[in-house]
Amino acid sequence: MLGWVIAGKYHSNNVSTTTSFHIHCELETLVKRFWELEKVPEEKSFSSEDAEVEKHYVSTFQRLEDGRYMVRLPMKKDCLDMGDSRCMAITRWLQMEKRMARDTKLRSMYIEFMREYARLDHMKKVPFNYVPKGSVYYIPHHAVLKESSTTTKLRVVFDASAKSSTGTSLNENMMNGPKTQDDLTGHLIRFRIWTYVENADARQMYRQFKVHPDDWDLQRIIWREDAKSQLEDYWLVTVTQGETASAFLATRSLNQLAKDNEKELPAAAHAVLNNVYMDDLVTGAFTIKEALELQS
Question: Which of 122, 161, 127 has its CA nearest to residue 141?
Answer without folding.
Answer: 161
